[in-house]
Amino acid sequence: MARRMMSDEVQGHIRELILTRRLAPGDPLPTESELMSLFEVSRNSVREALKALQAVNVVDIRHGFGTYVGSLSLDSFVDGMVFRAAVRHRRGEASLAELLEVREALEAGLIGSVAGDIPDADLGRLRELIGAMEREADETGRVSAETDRAFHLALYRSLGNHLLSEVLDAFWAAFHRVREELREERQDERVTLARHQAIVAALEAGDTAGAVTAMRDHFAGIRQVLRRSARD
Amino acid sequence: MARRMMSDEVQGHIRELILTRRLAPGDPLPTESELMSLFEVSRNSVREALKALQAVNVVDIRHGFGTYVGSLSLDSFVDGMVFRAAVRHRRGEASLAELLEVREALEAGLIGSVAGDIPDADLGRLRELIGAMEREADETGRVSAETDRAFHLALYRSLGNHLLSEVLDAFWAAFHRVREELREERQDERVTLARHQAIVAALEAGDTAGAVTAMRDHFAGIRQVLRRSARD
DNA sequence: ATCGGGAGATGGGACATGGGATGTTCCTAC
DNA sequence: GTAGGAACATCCCATGTCCCATCTCCCGAT
Protein backbone atom coordinates (compact mmCIF):
# COMPACT_ATOMS: atom_id res chain seq x y z
CA MET A 1 0.00 0.00 0.00
CA ALA A 2 0.92 3.57 -0.43
CA ARG A 3 0.89 4.09 3.34
CA ARG A 4 4.63 3.92 3.89
CA MET A 5 6.21 7.15 5.06
CA MET A 6 4.38 10.29 4.22
CA SER A 7 7.19 12.23 2.65
CA ASP A 8 7.99 9.43 0.21
CA GLU A 9 4.37 9.22 -0.69
CA VAL A 10 4.25 12.95 -1.28
CA GLN A 11 7.37 12.69 -3.43
CA GLY A 12 5.62 10.21 -5.64
CA HIS A 13 2.56 12.40 -5.89
CA ILE A 14 4.62 15.37 -6.94
CA ARG A 15 6.39 13.33 -9.58
CA GLU A 16 3.05 12.12 -10.89
CA LEU A 17 1.76 15.65 -10.85
CA ILE A 18 4.65 16.81 -13.01
CA LEU A 19 4.05 14.01 -15.46
CA THR A 20 0.29 14.16 -15.70
CA ARG A 21 0.22 17.93 -16.07
CA ARG A 22 3.01 17.67 -18.63
CA LEU A 23 5.10 20.28 -16.89
CA ALA A 24 8.46 21.30 -18.25
CA PRO A 25 11.55 22.46 -16.38
CA GLY A 26 10.90 25.95 -15.09
CA ASP A 27 7.14 25.58 -14.82
CA PRO A 28 5.68 26.55 -11.46
CA LEU A 29 4.51 23.99 -8.94
CA PRO A 30 1.80 24.50 -6.33
CA THR A 31 2.91 26.33 -3.22
CA GLU A 32 3.73 24.43 -0.08
CA SER A 33 0.40 25.18 1.48
CA GLU A 34 -1.44 24.14 -1.65
CA LEU A 35 0.45 20.85 -1.64
CA MET A 36 -0.44 20.43 2.04
CA SER A 37 -4.14 20.62 1.39
CA LEU A 38 -3.84 18.78 -1.91
CA PHE A 39 -2.36 15.68 -0.31
CA GLU A 40 -3.71 16.32 3.18
CA VAL A 41 -0.39 16.13 4.94
CA SER A 42 1.50 18.50 7.16
CA ARG A 43 3.80 21.15 5.94
CA ASN A 44 6.76 19.22 7.32
CA SER A 45 6.11 16.24 5.13
CA VAL A 46 5.72 18.46 2.11
CA ARG A 47 8.96 20.20 2.83
CA GLU A 48 10.86 16.96 3.37
CA ALA A 49 9.54 15.63 0.09
CA LEU A 50 10.53 18.81 -1.72
CA LYS A 51 13.98 18.74 -0.17
CA ALA A 52 14.49 15.19 -1.38
CA LEU A 53 13.30 16.08 -4.86
CA GLN A 54 15.48 19.15 -4.89
CA ALA A 55 18.48 16.96 -4.10
CA VAL A 56 18.02 15.19 -7.42
CA ASN A 57 17.15 18.30 -9.44
CA VAL A 58 13.54 17.36 -9.92
CA VAL A 59 12.30 20.55 -8.30
CA ASP A 60 13.84 23.94 -7.84
CA ILE A 61 12.96 25.80 -4.65
CA ARG A 62 13.30 29.56 -4.70
CA HIS A 63 12.99 31.24 -1.36
CA GLY A 64 10.26 33.82 -1.24
CA PHE A 65 9.16 33.06 -4.74
CA GLY A 66 7.89 29.55 -5.14
CA THR A 67 8.87 26.06 -6.20
CA TYR A 68 9.38 25.10 -9.82
CA VAL A 69 10.09 22.06 -11.88
CA GLY A 70 13.83 21.52 -11.74
CA SER A 71 16.33 21.36 -14.55
CA LEU A 72 16.62 17.56 -14.33
CA SER A 73 20.32 18.10 -14.91
CA LEU A 74 23.00 15.71 -13.73
CA ASP A 75 24.62 18.12 -11.30
CA SER A 76 23.54 16.15 -8.29
CA PHE A 77 24.95 13.07 -9.92
CA VAL A 78 28.30 14.81 -10.19
CA ASP A 79 28.16 15.74 -6.53
CA GLY A 80 27.35 12.18 -5.68
CA MET A 81 30.27 10.82 -7.62
CA VAL A 82 32.67 13.33 -6.16
CA PHE A 83 31.61 12.42 -2.67
CA ARG A 84 31.72 8.76 -3.43
CA ALA A 85 35.20 9.12 -4.84
CA ALA A 86 36.30 10.98 -1.74
CA VAL A 87 34.99 8.27 0.54
CA ARG A 88 36.56 5.51 -1.48
CA HIS A 89 39.83 7.31 -1.79
CA ARG A 90 40.19 7.25 1.97
CA ARG A 91 39.78 3.52 1.87
CA GLY A 92 42.66 3.10 -0.51
CA GLU A 93 40.76 2.72 -3.75
CA ALA A 94 41.90 4.37 -6.94
CA SER A 95 38.69 6.25 -7.45
CA LEU A 96 40.21 8.88 -9.69
CA ALA A 97 41.63 6.27 -12.02
CA GLU A 98 38.25 4.59 -12.15
CA LEU A 99 36.60 7.82 -13.19
CA LEU A 100 39.15 8.31 -15.89
CA GLU A 101 38.55 4.83 -17.20
CA VAL A 102 34.85 5.54 -17.54
CA ARG A 103 35.62 8.67 -19.49
CA GLU A 104 38.00 6.80 -21.71
CA ALA A 105 35.48 4.10 -22.46
CA LEU A 106 32.86 6.68 -23.37
CA GLU A 107 35.01 8.83 -25.56
CA ALA A 108 36.79 5.96 -27.24
CA GLY A 109 33.42 4.52 -28.12
CA LEU A 110 32.04 7.83 -29.29
CA ILE A 111 34.90 9.02 -31.39
CA GLY A 112 34.38 5.94 -33.51
CA SER A 113 30.81 7.01 -34.15
CA VAL A 114 31.53 10.58 -35.17
CA ALA A 115 34.70 10.05 -37.14
CA GLY A 116 33.94 9.70 -40.79
CA ASP A 117 31.13 12.20 -41.07
CA ILE A 118 31.80 15.05 -38.74
CA PRO A 119 30.40 18.34 -40.08
CA ASP A 120 32.80 21.02 -41.22
CA ALA A 121 31.27 23.45 -38.77
CA ASP A 122 32.31 21.22 -35.86
CA LEU A 123 35.79 20.80 -37.30
CA GLY A 124 36.08 24.55 -37.51
CA ARG A 125 35.01 24.89 -33.91
CA LEU A 126 37.56 22.29 -32.86
CA ARG A 127 40.33 24.10 -34.68
CA GLU A 128 39.26 27.28 -32.98
CA LEU A 129 39.50 25.63 -29.58
CA ILE A 130 42.93 24.25 -30.38
CA GLY A 131 43.95 27.78 -31.22
CA ALA A 132 42.58 29.02 -27.92
CA MET A 133 44.54 26.33 -26.11
CA GLU A 134 47.76 27.40 -27.80
CA ARG A 135 47.14 30.97 -26.83
CA GLU A 136 46.39 30.09 -23.24
CA ALA A 137 49.42 27.84 -22.98
CA ASP A 138 51.61 30.66 -24.25
CA GLU A 139 50.13 33.34 -22.05
CA THR A 140 49.46 31.62 -18.75
CA GLY A 141 51.31 28.36 -19.10
CA ARG A 142 48.15 26.34 -18.68
CA VAL A 143 45.17 25.41 -20.76
CA SER A 144 42.05 26.57 -19.01
CA ALA A 145 39.74 23.87 -17.80
CA GLU A 146 36.81 25.42 -19.63
CA THR A 147 38.53 25.21 -22.98
CA ASP A 148 39.30 21.56 -22.45
CA ARG A 149 35.73 20.96 -21.46
CA ALA A 150 34.44 22.75 -24.51
CA PHE A 151 36.73 20.69 -26.70
CA HIS A 152 35.44 17.39 -25.42
CA LEU A 153 31.88 18.59 -25.83
CA ALA A 154 32.39 19.92 -29.34
CA LEU A 155 33.71 16.57 -30.49
CA TYR A 156 30.35 14.89 -30.14
CA ARG A 157 28.00 17.73 -30.86
CA SER A 158 27.13 16.28 -34.25
CA LEU A 159 25.51 13.27 -32.61
CA GLY A 160 22.69 15.51 -31.47
CA ASN A 161 22.26 13.48 -28.32
CA HIS A 162 21.46 15.77 -25.43
CA LEU A 163 21.70 13.11 -22.77
CA LEU A 164 25.03 11.96 -24.07
CA SER A 165 26.49 15.43 -23.87
CA GLU A 166 25.33 15.80 -20.31
CA VAL A 167 26.66 12.43 -19.26
CA LEU A 168 29.99 13.18 -20.82
CA ASP A 169 30.11 16.57 -19.21
CA ALA A 170 29.14 15.10 -15.86
CA PHE A 171 32.04 12.68 -15.89
CA TRP A 172 34.35 15.40 -17.08
CA ALA A 173 33.30 17.61 -14.19
CA ALA A 174 33.50 14.81 -11.66
CA PHE A 175 36.99 13.86 -12.78
CA HIS A 176 38.26 17.39 -12.60
CA ARG A 177 36.69 18.14 -9.25
CA VAL A 178 38.12 15.00 -7.71
CA ARG A 179 41.51 15.72 -9.17
CA GLU A 180 41.41 19.18 -7.67
CA GLU A 181 40.48 17.86 -4.27
CA LEU A 182 43.20 15.26 -4.34
CA ARG A 183 45.68 17.82 -5.61
CA GLU A 184 46.88 15.43 -8.24
CA GLU A 185 49.47 16.48 -10.74
CA ARG A 186 48.43 17.54 -14.16
CA GLN A 187 49.94 16.57 -17.42
CA ASP A 188 52.40 18.80 -19.17
CA GLU A 189 50.25 21.17 -21.18
CA ARG A 190 52.27 20.81 -24.34
CA VAL A 191 51.65 17.09 -24.34
CA THR A 192 47.93 17.61 -23.80
CA LEU A 193 47.85 20.08 -26.63
CA ALA A 194 49.63 17.68 -28.97
CA ARG A 195 47.15 14.91 -28.15
CA HIS A 196 44.24 17.15 -28.93
CA GLN A 197 45.81 18.18 -32.17
CA ALA A 198 46.34 14.57 -33.12
CA ILE A 199 42.66 13.84 -32.58
CA VAL A 200 41.55 16.72 -34.75
CA ALA A 201 44.10 15.80 -37.42
CA ALA A 202 42.73 12.27 -37.62
CA LEU A 203 39.18 13.59 -37.84
CA GLU A 204 40.12 15.96 -40.62
CA ALA A 205 41.71 13.11 -42.53
CA GLY A 206 38.57 11.02 -42.08
CA ASP A 207 40.74 8.40 -40.41
CA THR A 208 38.39 6.61 -38.02
CA ALA A 209 40.86 4.10 -36.66
CA GLY A 210 43.42 6.85 -36.25
CA ALA A 211 40.97 8.98 -34.30
CA VAL A 212 40.24 6.12 -31.93
CA THR A 213 43.89 5.43 -31.23
CA ALA A 214 44.58 9.14 -30.85
CA MET A 215 41.84 9.31 -28.27
CA ARG A 216 43.20 6.27 -26.47
CA ASP A 217 46.65 7.81 -26.48
CA HIS A 218 45.22 10.97 -24.99
CA PHE A 219 43.78 9.08 -22.05
CA ALA A 220 46.80 6.83 -21.74
CA GLY A 221 48.87 9.96 -21.23
CA ILE A 222 46.66 11.21 -18.43
CA ARG A 223 46.60 7.78 -16.85
CA GLN A 224 50.35 7.63 -16.84
CA VAL A 225 50.62 10.91 -15.00
CA LEU A 226 48.18 9.63 -12.40
CA ARG A 227 50.14 6.46 -11.91
CA ARG A 228 53.38 8.34 -11.59
CA SER A 229 52.08 10.63 -8.89
CA ALA A 230 50.56 7.62 -7.14
CA ARG A 231 53.99 6.10 -6.79
CA ASP A 232 55.34 9.06 -4.82
CA MET B 1 30.65 31.79 7.35
CA ALA B 2 27.40 30.04 7.61
CA ARG B 3 26.07 29.00 4.27
CA ARG B 4 22.57 29.92 3.29
CA MET B 5 19.82 27.68 4.51
CA MET B 6 20.24 25.60 7.58
CA SER B 7 19.42 22.24 6.05
CA ASP B 8 22.05 22.68 3.35
CA GLU B 9 24.56 23.62 5.97
CA VAL B 10 23.68 20.56 7.99
CA GLN B 11 24.01 18.44 4.87
CA GLY B 12 27.53 19.69 4.42
CA HIS B 13 28.36 19.01 8.04
CA ILE B 14 27.13 15.46 7.80
CA ARG B 15 29.16 14.88 4.67
CA GLU B 16 32.24 16.24 6.41
CA LEU B 17 31.50 14.09 9.39
CA ILE B 18 31.44 10.99 7.24
CA LEU B 19 34.73 11.94 5.64
CA THR B 20 36.64 13.03 8.71
CA ARG B 21 35.55 10.04 10.75
CA ARG B 22 36.38 7.80 7.80
CA LEU B 23 33.04 6.08 7.93
CA ALA B 24 32.16 3.34 5.48
CA PRO B 25 28.76 2.41 4.06
CA GLY B 26 26.76 0.77 6.79
CA ASP B 27 28.45 2.53 9.68
CA PRO B 28 26.10 4.21 12.14
CA LEU B 29 25.60 7.95 12.21
CA PRO B 30 24.61 10.03 15.23
CA THR B 31 20.91 10.03 16.03
CA GLU B 32 18.70 12.90 15.01
CA SER B 33 18.80 14.44 18.47
CA GLU B 34 22.55 14.11 18.65
CA LEU B 35 22.85 15.87 15.33
CA MET B 36 20.50 18.56 16.61
CA SER B 37 22.70 19.40 19.56
CA LEU B 38 25.88 18.79 17.59
CA PHE B 39 25.07 21.46 15.03
CA GLU B 40 22.69 23.45 17.23
CA VAL B 41 19.79 23.37 14.83
CA SER B 42 16.22 22.23 15.09
CA ARG B 43 15.02 18.74 14.47
CA ASN B 44 13.28 19.86 11.30
CA SER B 45 16.48 21.09 9.72
CA VAL B 46 18.25 17.88 10.59
CA ARG B 47 15.48 15.81 9.10
CA GLU B 48 15.35 17.85 5.91
CA ALA B 49 19.09 17.44 5.51
CA LEU B 50 18.87 13.71 6.10
CA LYS B 51 16.04 13.38 3.62
CA ALA B 52 18.05 15.15 0.98
CA LEU B 53 21.08 12.97 1.66
CA GLN B 54 18.94 9.88 1.63
CA ALA B 55 17.69 10.84 -1.81
CA VAL B 56 21.23 10.49 -3.15
CA ASN B 57 22.11 7.37 -1.19
CA VAL B 58 24.54 9.11 1.09
CA VAL B 59 22.67 8.10 4.20
CA ASP B 60 20.31 5.27 4.95
CA ILE B 61 17.48 5.98 7.38
CA ARG B 62 15.98 3.01 9.18
CA HIS B 63 12.81 3.72 11.05
CA GLY B 64 13.03 2.97 14.74
CA PHE B 65 16.63 1.96 14.49
CA GLY B 66 18.91 4.75 13.43
CA THR B 67 20.57 6.40 10.47
CA TYR B 68 23.57 4.91 8.74
CA VAL B 69 26.02 5.76 6.02
CA GLY B 70 24.35 4.90 2.73
CA SER B 71 25.48 2.57 0.02
CA LEU B 72 26.58 5.41 -2.26
CA SER B 73 25.12 3.37 -5.06
CA LEU B 74 23.79 4.85 -8.27
CA ASP B 75 20.20 3.78 -7.73
CA SER B 76 18.99 7.31 -7.26
CA PHE B 77 20.77 8.24 -10.43
CA VAL B 78 18.81 5.56 -12.26
CA ASP B 79 15.58 6.92 -10.83
CA GLY B 80 16.57 10.35 -11.96
CA MET B 81 17.25 9.24 -15.48
CA VAL B 82 14.05 7.28 -15.72
CA PHE B 83 12.06 10.28 -14.59
CA ARG B 84 13.95 12.56 -16.88
CA ALA B 85 13.33 10.25 -19.79
CA ALA B 86 9.64 10.13 -18.96
CA VAL B 87 9.39 13.92 -18.90
CA ARG B 88 11.30 14.31 -22.12
CA HIS B 89 9.38 11.60 -23.84
CA ARG B 90 6.20 13.57 -23.35
CA ARG B 91 7.83 16.46 -25.10
CA GLY B 92 8.58 14.41 -28.16
CA GLU B 93 12.22 13.64 -27.55
CA ALA B 94 13.68 10.24 -28.26
CA SER B 95 14.89 9.71 -24.74
CA LEU B 96 15.04 5.95 -25.01
CA ALA B 97 17.20 6.11 -28.10
CA GLU B 98 19.50 8.53 -26.33
CA LEU B 99 19.92 6.13 -23.46
CA LEU B 100 20.74 3.35 -25.83
CA GLU B 101 23.33 5.46 -27.54
CA VAL B 102 25.09 6.10 -24.26
CA ARG B 103 25.16 2.39 -23.56
CA GLU B 104 26.51 1.71 -27.00
CA ALA B 105 29.28 4.24 -26.61
CA LEU B 106 30.29 2.77 -23.28
CA GLU B 107 30.26 -0.83 -24.32
CA ALA B 108 31.84 -0.26 -27.69
CA GLY B 109 34.65 1.57 -25.96
CA LEU B 110 35.03 -1.07 -23.29
CA ILE B 111 34.96 -4.14 -25.41
CA GLY B 112 38.02 -2.80 -27.13
CA SER B 113 39.82 -2.66 -23.80
CA VAL B 114 39.01 -6.17 -22.65
CA ALA B 115 39.30 -8.00 -25.94
CA GLY B 116 42.72 -9.49 -26.31
CA ASP B 117 43.34 -10.48 -22.75
CA ILE B 118 40.12 -11.59 -21.21
CA PRO B 119 40.66 -14.28 -18.56
CA ASP B 120 39.50 -17.80 -19.26
CA ALA B 121 37.36 -17.73 -16.15
CA ASP B 122 35.34 -14.85 -17.59
CA LEU B 123 35.02 -16.57 -20.93
CA GLY B 124 33.68 -19.61 -19.15
CA ARG B 125 31.17 -17.50 -17.31
CA LEU B 126 30.08 -15.89 -20.57
CA ARG B 127 29.59 -19.26 -22.20
CA GLU B 128 27.56 -20.33 -19.21
CA LEU B 129 25.33 -17.31 -19.57
CA ILE B 130 24.86 -17.97 -23.26
CA GLY B 131 23.78 -21.47 -22.32
CA ALA B 132 21.31 -20.07 -19.82
CA MET B 133 19.90 -17.77 -22.49
CA GLU B 134 19.38 -20.67 -24.86
CA ARG B 135 17.60 -22.62 -22.17
CA GLU B 136 15.37 -19.68 -21.28
CA ALA B 137 14.56 -18.97 -24.89
CA ASP B 138 13.53 -22.58 -25.37
CA GLU B 139 11.48 -22.84 -22.24
CA THR B 140 9.76 -19.49 -21.89
CA GLY B 141 10.36 -17.92 -25.28
CA ARG B 142 12.22 -15.02 -23.75
CA VAL B 143 15.63 -14.37 -22.34
CA SER B 144 15.25 -13.13 -18.80
CA ALA B 145 16.35 -9.59 -18.15
CA GLU B 146 18.62 -10.70 -15.34
CA THR B 147 20.60 -13.02 -17.58
CA ASP B 148 21.14 -10.26 -20.10
CA ARG B 149 22.22 -7.95 -17.32
CA ALA B 150 24.65 -10.52 -15.96
CA PHE B 151 26.08 -11.01 -19.42
CA HIS B 152 26.85 -7.36 -19.93
CA LEU B 153 28.42 -7.18 -16.49
CA ALA B 154 30.52 -10.30 -16.93
CA LEU B 155 32.03 -8.90 -20.10
CA TYR B 156 33.94 -6.21 -18.25
CA ARG B 157 34.58 -7.90 -14.94
CA SER B 158 38.24 -8.34 -15.77
CA LEU B 159 38.79 -4.60 -15.77
CA GLY B 160 38.37 -4.62 -12.01
CA ASN B 161 36.76 -1.21 -12.08
CA HIS B 162 33.98 -1.08 -9.56
CA LEU B 163 32.69 2.32 -10.63
CA LEU B 164 32.60 1.24 -14.23
CA SER B 165 30.49 -1.79 -13.45
CA GLU B 166 28.03 0.32 -11.53
CA VAL B 167 27.78 2.96 -14.23
CA LEU B 168 27.21 0.33 -16.84
CA ASP B 169 24.62 -1.38 -14.73
CA ALA B 170 22.92 1.93 -14.02
CA PHE B 171 22.45 2.67 -17.68
CA TRP B 172 21.35 -0.87 -18.32
CA ALA B 173 18.71 -0.55 -15.62
CA ALA B 174 17.60 2.87 -16.78
CA PHE B 175 17.21 1.70 -20.35
CA HIS B 176 15.18 -1.34 -19.41
CA ARG B 177 12.96 0.51 -16.99
CA VAL B 178 12.19 3.20 -19.53
CA ARG B 179 11.52 0.64 -22.19
CA GLU B 180 9.09 -1.12 -19.88
CA GLU B 181 7.26 2.08 -19.10
CA LEU B 182 7.02 3.00 -22.74
CA ARG B 183 5.94 -0.52 -23.63
CA GLU B 184 8.38 -0.58 -26.48
CA GLU B 185 8.79 -3.69 -28.54
CA ARG B 186 11.67 -6.01 -27.85
CA GLN B 187 13.94 -7.62 -30.32
CA ASP B 188 13.40 -11.16 -31.43
CA GLU B 189 15.14 -13.27 -28.83
CA ARG B 190 16.87 -15.48 -31.36
CA VAL B 191 18.53 -12.46 -32.91
CA THR B 192 19.64 -11.20 -29.52
CA LEU B 193 21.06 -14.58 -28.73
CA ALA B 194 22.99 -14.71 -31.97
CA ARG B 195 24.48 -11.28 -31.32
CA HIS B 196 25.65 -12.32 -27.91
CA GLN B 197 27.17 -15.45 -29.32
CA ALA B 198 29.00 -13.45 -31.94
CA ILE B 199 30.54 -11.26 -29.27
CA VAL B 200 31.77 -14.21 -27.27
CA ALA B 201 33.07 -15.90 -30.39
CA ALA B 202 35.14 -12.86 -31.28
CA LEU B 203 36.50 -12.68 -27.75
CA GLU B 204 37.45 -16.32 -27.80
CA ALA B 205 39.28 -15.81 -31.07
CA GLY B 206 41.13 -12.86 -29.59
CA ASP B 207 39.72 -10.75 -32.40
CA THR B 208 39.54 -7.24 -30.98
CA ALA B 209 38.20 -5.51 -34.05
CA GLY B 210 35.69 -8.29 -34.52
CA ALA B 211 34.47 -7.93 -30.96
CA VAL B 212 33.95 -4.21 -31.42
CA THR B 213 31.92 -4.64 -34.58
CA ALA B 214 29.96 -7.48 -33.01
CA MET B 215 29.09 -5.19 -30.15
CA ARG B 216 28.10 -2.40 -32.51
CA ASP B 217 25.95 -4.83 -34.46
CA HIS B 218 24.27 -5.86 -31.25
CA PHE B 219 23.26 -2.30 -30.49
CA ALA B 220 22.42 -1.55 -34.10
CA GLY B 221 19.90 -4.36 -33.91
CA ILE B 222 18.22 -2.97 -30.84
CA ARG B 223 18.21 0.51 -32.33
CA GLN B 224 16.52 -0.73 -35.44
CA VAL B 225 13.70 -2.28 -33.46
CA LEU B 226 13.21 1.00 -31.62
CA ARG B 227 13.04 2.94 -34.84
CA ARG B 228 10.62 0.52 -36.36
CA SER B 229 8.21 0.76 -33.45
CA ALA B 230 8.58 4.54 -33.49
CA ARG B 231 7.26 4.63 -37.04
CA ASP B 232 4.01 2.96 -36.09
C1' DA C 1 5.93 61.48 -17.95
C1' DT C 2 9.44 58.99 -15.67
C1' DC C 3 12.13 57.08 -12.29
C1' DG C 4 12.94 55.33 -7.57
C1' DG C 5 11.77 53.77 -3.24
C1' DG C 6 8.79 51.90 0.22
C1' DA C 7 4.54 49.11 1.94
C1' DG C 8 2.14 45.07 1.56
C1' DA C 9 1.22 40.44 -0.18
C1' DT C 10 2.96 36.06 -1.19
C1' DG C 11 5.71 32.16 -0.13
C1' DG C 12 9.57 29.68 1.55
C1' DG C 13 12.87 28.95 6.07
C1' DA C 14 13.51 27.83 10.86
C1' DC C 15 12.17 26.54 15.46
C1' DA C 16 9.74 24.21 19.42
C1' DT C 17 6.81 20.80 21.10
C1' DG C 18 3.87 16.83 21.48
C1' DG C 19 2.23 12.49 20.24
C1' DG C 20 2.75 8.23 17.24
C1' DA C 21 4.89 4.33 14.91
C1' DT C 22 8.44 0.92 14.66
C1' DG C 23 12.22 -1.36 15.41
C1' DT C 24 15.59 -3.75 19.18
C1' DT C 25 16.66 -5.70 23.53
C1' DC C 26 16.00 -8.17 27.28
C1' DC C 27 13.49 -10.22 30.85
C1' DT C 28 9.86 -12.93 32.37
C1' DA C 29 6.75 -16.87 32.27
C1' DC C 30 6.02 -21.31 31.00
C1' DG D 1 15.23 -23.42 26.52
C1' DT D 2 12.04 -20.93 24.21
C1' DA D 3 8.11 -17.92 23.18
C1' DG D 4 5.74 -13.71 24.51
C1' DG D 5 5.71 -9.19 25.83
C1' DA D 6 7.17 -4.90 28.21
C1' DA D 7 10.57 -1.10 28.07
C1' DC D 8 13.38 1.66 25.47
C1' DA D 9 15.61 4.02 21.70
C1' DT D 10 14.89 6.14 17.49
C1' DC D 11 12.67 7.80 13.68
C1' DC D 12 7.91 9.74 11.78
C1' DC D 13 4.21 13.14 11.58
C1' DA D 14 1.44 17.18 12.93
C1' DT D 15 0.62 21.94 14.67
C1' DG D 16 1.64 26.56 15.65
C1' DT D 17 4.53 30.54 15.37
C1' DC D 18 7.68 33.66 13.76
C1' DC D 19 11.31 35.19 10.47
C1' DC D 20 13.10 36.44 6.07
C1' DA D 21 13.30 36.74 0.87
C1' DT D 22 11.21 38.21 -3.37
C1' DC D 23 7.84 40.33 -6.14
C1' DT D 24 4.16 43.89 -7.16
C1' DC D 25 2.30 48.10 -7.17
C1' DC D 26 1.53 52.54 -5.96
C1' DC D 27 2.96 57.07 -4.76
C1' DG D 28 5.80 60.90 -4.59
C1' DA D 29 9.90 63.38 -6.16
C1' DT D 30 12.08 65.10 -10.16
Quick take:
Chain A has ten helices and two strands. With 232 residues, chain A is mainly alpha-helical. Helix content of chain A is 70%, strand content 3%.
Provide structural commentary.
The structure is a homodimer of 232-residue chains. Chain A has 232 residues and is mainly alpha-helical. Chain A folds into 2 domains: 64 residues, Winged helix-like DNA-binding domain superfamily/Winged helix DNA-binding domain (Arc Repressor Mutant, subunit A, Orthogonal Bundle), CATH 1.10.10.10; 157 residues, Four Helix Bundle (Hemerythrin (Met), subunit A). In chain A, 70% of the residues lie in helices and 3% in strands. Chain A has 10 helices and 2 strands; from the N terminus they run H-H-H-E-E-H-H-H-H-H-H-H. Chain A has a two-stranded antiparallel sheet with strand order 1-2. In chain A, a hairpin with a 3-residue loop joins strand 1 and strand 2. The termini of chain A are far apart. The model of chain A has no long low-confidence stretch (mean pLDDT 92). At the A-B interface, helix 1, helix 3, helix 4, helix 5 and helix 8 of A face helix 1, helix 3, helix 4, helix 5 and helix 8 of B. Chain A binds a DNA duplex (30 and 30 nucleotides) through helix 3.
